[in-house]
Write a structure and sequence with these properties.
alpha/beta, oxidoreductase, L-2-Hydroxyisocaproate Dehydrogenase, Chain A, domain 2, binds ligand NAX, 42% helix, three-stranded antiparallel sheet, six-stranded parallel sheet, Rossmann fold, single chain, Malate_DH_type2
Length: 327
């Protein structure tokens, strides 16, 4: 049988991990033939709760689950890891300014990046889910300069999936018949969900939807969906976030379908005027285990303005963490 892949999940006692770990153990992320070994990282106060989640994973009797280790030590958690899902983060507390939030998270993602560089497997792939995800990924990446920068990504797949679902409902076309939706920029309220190049059954959707629907319902609806979930559920998105993380890693490892792309935040190579190094969301394809930014798309004036606004926010976040000495 195949050698198990080691998957590290941080924030393992949290609500996203509670959905995510079971999907990984079931083989939804790496396929039905690939055994996995789980490494759960938590802060000391939450190790007991993570042990509870691990007990339930045991009780799932998953044939692909080769073992579970639980630790509060990043060096142990990332030792030899192949896939690192950085879910645990410091949430914004009452009265916390953006600078405080970035600083608190720098204290988490800096050391975790360093631990990944020190101990992870050569093929390590990192997905940052914990917010502010793009800049947390930037901090981790800059603290792991010997790891190829493109191995550090942040999650905009939930936004991408929300955009697909909303478009599907609006034009009454199954998600399976839609392609080439894009999320640009930051995983924040400034993100730009873009339908300019989207296809339904291979034909452009842009002529089938109203400009006013795009600008007044679609874009804000996708960008504010997280807040709507909190209002309805009394808790933030968890199972949908876990499902998006599964989709992200599955496509990274197994490839994207022909004639389609997905959205991933990764260190910019300067494409589309996004300053090099900023972890920004792009349309990407995957093959051979590597993301590639879709080249040469035409960007109209409306899109340009939206992309630039979100990228400006990312540049401000980068300047702030530079000033704090976090990168
Ligand atoms: P929870 O508060 O339920 O769980 C977070 C867990 O992380 C806690 O158990 C906490 O003890 C742990 N943690 C904190 N610091 C840690 C550290 N240094 N090492 C290891 N574990 C640590 O949050 P949950 O709902 O699971 O959300 C986790 C993160 O995902 C949050 O930052 C949230 O904002 C973010 N999200 C990102 C999304 C995205 O699309 N990129 C969407 C969903 C979600 O909002």
């Amino acid at each position: 049988s195949r050698t198990p892949v080691t998957v590290t999940v941080t924030g393992a006692a949290g609500q996203i991990a509670y959905a995510l770990l079971f999907r990984i153990a079931a083989g939804d992320m790496l396929g039905p033939d690939q055994p996995v070994r789980l490494r759960l990282l938590e802060i000391p106060q939450a190790v007991g709760a993570a042990e509870g989640t691990a007990m339930e994973l045991d009780d799932g009797a998953f044939p692909l689950l080769a073992g579970i280790d639980i630790t509060d030590d990043a060096a142990v958690a990332f030792d030899g890891t192949n896939i690192a899902l950085l879910v645990g983060a410091r949430p914004r507390g009452p009265g916390m300014e953006r600078g405080d939030l970035l600083e608190a998270n720098g204290g988490i993602f800096g050391p975790q990046g360093a631990a990944i560089q020190a101990g992870a497997a050569d093929d390590v792939r990192v997905l940052v889910v914990g917010n502010p995800a793009n800049t947390n990924a930037l901090i981790a990446q800059r603290n792991a300069p010997d790891v190829p920068a493109g191995r550090f990504t942040a999650m905009t797949r939930l936004d991408h999936n929300r955009a697909l679902s909303r478009l599907s409902a609006h034009i009454e076309t199954p998600v399976s018949d839609l392609a080439r939706v894009t999320i640009w920029g930051n995983h924040s309220a400034t993100q730009y969900p873009d339908l300019t190049h989207a296809l339904a059954n291979g034909t452009p959707v842009i002529n089938r939807v109203d400009r006013s629907w795009i600008e007044q319902e679609f874009i804000p609806g996708v960008a504010r969906r997280g807040a709507a979930i909190i209002e309805a559920r009394g808790a933030s998105s968890a199972a949908s976030a876990a499902s998006a993380a599964i989709d992200h890693v599955r496509d990274w490892v197994q490839g994207t379908p022909p004639n389609d792309w997905t959205s991933v935040a990764l260190p910019s190579d300067g494409s589309y005027g996004v300053p090099e190094g900023l972890v920004s969301s792009f349309p990407v394809t995957s093959s051979g285990g590597e993301w590639r930014i879709v080249p040469d798309l035409e960007i109209d004036a409306f899109s340009r303005e939206r992309i630039d606004a979100s990228v400006a926010e990312l540049a401000e976040e980068r300047a702030a963490v530079e000033q704090l000495g976090l990168i």
